[in-house]
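If it is no trouble, might I ask you for a protein's amino acid sequence along with its backbone structure tokens?
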Amino acid sequence: MRQNALQQAATLAQGATPEAARPLVEALLAADPDDGDALTLLGMIEQRAGHVDAALAALGRARALDPANPARLGNHALALKRAGDFHGAIEALQTALRLRPGAAVTLANLGGCLIDAGRAGEAVAPLEAALAARPEHFDALANLGIARARTGDLAAAIGAYDKALALRPDAIEVRLNRVDALVAGGRADEALRTLEAMLARYPGHPRASNQLAGLLEAKGDLEGAIAVYGEALDRGGLNHPVGVNLTRALVQTGRPREAVALADRLIAALPSVTTPLALKCAALERAGEAEALAALMGLDEFVRVIDVMDVPGFETREAFDAALAEELVAHASLTFEPEGLVTRGGRQSDELATASTPALVALGALARRAIADYLETAPAGGHPFLKARPKSWSLTLWGTILTPGGTVDAHIHAPNWLSGVYYPALPEVVSRGQEGWLAMGALPEALGGGGTQQRYEPRAGRMILFPSYVWHATLPFSGDTPRLSFAFDCVPRGVGRPHRLTR
């Protein structure tokens, strides 16, 4: 009886209407709340319904009831991965491999998790091991292509993608990943032809349209790119990434009111993502809508300045600041003008939120407490920033060392929700004027530069919190002393993006 119910529930859970399996699963769990198979099916139903926490709870309980079961570990790992807990997913998969060494599926999943965690170099070995066990493992080939591309071995990446496509010629995402590798390898014309052929077959495909429009932008054909973005929206409805890129392009081509209208559609469709708020700010600036811009930026309402007086574990705040500076200067990840970021004339670290040195651990605790206090005390209201307030989040943290004359160009931290900066020490010149100050509202040159700016004074021991969608920059400074700072973000689960250097 139980076995028949399980088989029927499994068929329904994996079918077109997984909710149809719920009554059967609930009946099984009513009879035995510790039924690991029924809990696994419940987790599958919750995942397909988009209920992340409920899926994690069901699959985590199934794992706890049978901790030596590799399948339970694998199911829980994939749920952790979907929730953005890559560390937990990797740990579960590594445990599963100790229980069942050489399992191709587990190796392939581990490789995928390592890629998502920004550890593409480490992903190569388990993916190649998966392929040694099963040479035609499609997911392992597809992920090996990604790992090779991210580590700069573009020829090997394209080779892996070609093998995957030989198994599944209609694997659109793999073919589009191959396009990215072609572009990175200087084969833009071949990539363009591939995309044109794909869009002829799949008109308006969002990612293919984004890639083709990006290639057109790179060639200077911004109007052609706008046409591609527009066709994708016309054919497929409001796709968020396409809409964001079209909004940006409309600002760049002097059509700010069209950009405002599209940004409003994006905000209404997906209020948890803050990137359209940034683009609407730029569009309002270009349209001369000063009052609407001030209301949207909300600097007087949403910016908080906190002067830290003492830090647990340190005799004085000054001792904490000195230790912070020492730990940052010695950090192995510091990279000069990292690729894809906006630090100019300075070095920036990789992720520091998981650092284990005393001052960085203490700074992480300070930042988490500041974010938690902000979330607790921020008012309810109709402002889109408040509507995007996350229910669950994580911290990302990094440090920057600017040399005199260096700057951090205008940028945003969206789609994250709240950003902050902490200053452990500053050159004397910063206290004598506005050199090296934080400029809110400064727009990047790609959007015309300038902007309606409000400037904030950095001080040693000062923390400044502000919405992640607000454009901001660090002004240049003179003298002969470096300027140190630590930035951090509240990263909404499933929406935000942690800091990560390209390596």
